[in-house]
What we know:
The complex is a heterodimer of chains A (139) and B (140).
Chain A lengths: L16 H24 L7 E2 L3 E2 L5 E5 L5 E3 L2 E3 L1 H15 L9 E5 L6 H13 L5 E6 L2
Helix pairs in contact in A: 2-3
Chain B lengths: L17 H18 L6 E3 L2 E2 L16 E8 L2 E6 L2 E3 L2 H10 L7 E5 L5 H14 L4 E5 L3
Parallel strand pairs in B: 2-7, 3-6, 6-7
Antiparallel strand pairs in B: 3-4, 4-5
Helix pairs in contact in B: 2-3
Amino acid sequence: xxxxxxxxxxxxxxxxxxxxxxxxxxxxxxxxxxxxxxxxxxxxxxxxxxxxxxxxxxxxxxxxxxxxxxxxxxxxxxxxxxxxxxxxxxxxxxxxxxxxxxxxxxxxxxxxxxxxxxxxxxxxxxxxxxxxxxxxxxx
Amino acid sequence: xxxxxxxxxxxxxxxxxxxxxxxxxxxxxxxxxxxxxxxxxxxxxxxxxxxxxxxxxxxxxxxxxxxxxxxxxxxxxxxxxxxxxxxxxxxxxxxxxxxxxxxxxxxxxxxxxxxxxxxxxxxxxxxxxxxxxxxxxxxx
Lengths: 139, 140
């Protein structure tokens, strides 16, 4: 009597190439995103309020810390320098119409209004009609 | 002459992928997790003015609502007309009763006023139903 040959299961080969491609793509995406968001937004404690709007896209983000220091993309700016930069951006992107600039002000809730007031006065003289104050929603 | 029937084959190189995939997944999960740690920011979008609100164009004869951030005996307070309010809820209750919602509201803050109170006043005016809210730096 002839017995059956011993059973050898077929070796399964997983193709890992596509998975590694996707994983690396996601990894690079998240690393890049986290770096970009850190570059534009410095660490400030925002006011917490109920019923505010979703944040829309901004062209210029001004960060004001609790001591009143103004920074843009990590670089310190004085208020006149910031207003001049906004003027250049308006000329470059909006045909010299500063009212179309989308400026977001991220001011620390522990600070006072001094720098915010100087900024608002400078921007109003430039022709900006609206700014966005960044806040957090109240839990 | 008998030639070798075997073709020359180089040694098979096998990459050890297990460790690399472990590390990659670890990094991926870390970045995905930290990306969701920060809640999305929201915004207030007041108009900005430097003119005195009293000189602003008004569609009615009723004075527009002007909320000042003033220093009281027990710290900063909200001031509307002649009345002072310690909390935003008290201010909201009074603002809701005003009828001239279409004329907009103005929030004025001096340089020394806390920014959080100015932001709260803007949002309180919006919550009370004012169509447009303007932020005005107050000259001292």
